[in-house]
Amino acid sequence: MERLQKYMAACGVASRRKSEQLIESGAVTVNGRVIKEMGYQVNPHADDVKVYGQRINTEEKIYILLNKPRGYVTTASDPQNRRIILDLLKDVQHRVYPVGRLDIDTSGLLILTNDGDLAQRLAHPSYEIDKVYLAKIKGIPDAAALEKLQSGIQLEDGITAPANARIIKIENNNAVVEITIHEGRNRQVRRMLDAIGHPVLRLSRERIGFLSVEGLKPGRYRQLQSEELIELKRMLDI
Asked: Where does the RNA-binding S4 domain start and stop, copy by copy (predicted)?
C-alpha cells in the first residue's frame, strides 16, 4: 500500500505538494469515490485512481538532459504558437516536464522528467543545488558590483541568496561573468545583473549540480546515466 499523494507523484501527475492540493480540491477519485484524505492508502496494483476523470498509473521514469537553444519556450504548449522545448524531443514516448524554466532568450541545461518527487526536490532552494550560468553583460563590473552579487541583491520579490560571481573574460569592453546561484526565481540572473547596472546581452546555463551541457550541442539531449541518477538522488535524499 502507498499514500495517495506519493503514488500520484510517482505516476508523474505532479509534485507531492501539488498532488495534495489536487486531493484537497476533490479532483481525485479512487475506485469511483472522491478522496480528500491526505493519508489515504492505495494499492497501486489493484485500485483505480483517476485525476479529473483520467486514469493514472505508474510508468517508467525518464530523466533527460537537454541543451535548450535560444528561441524556445520552456512550456508544454504555447498560446502564441512559439517553438516549445518538447518539439525537440523527437523520440521520447513518455510525457515529461521541465524542472524549472529558462526564458526564451536563455540557452543551456534543462532537466526534464516524469518523476514528480525528484522534480520538486530539485527545484526547491532548501537543497541548495548549484546552478551555474555564463552571462555576457554590457560593460565591465567593478569589485563593488561583484560584491553586491555575492552579498545578495534586493529585488522586488525579496533579497537574493548570496551568489558566486567572477569575471571569466573581457570581449570588446563587455564582460563574460560566471554566476552560481541555488535559487530559481523567474529571470533571476537577468534581474540581478540589471540591478548592478550591467544588463545581460547573452545568457546560458552551464551546469545544474554536477550535471553539465558538456558534449551536448544546442537542441540535443540525452538520458541520465545510471550513476548520474544515483548521485542526484543521493544529493536530494531520495
From this structure: 2-70
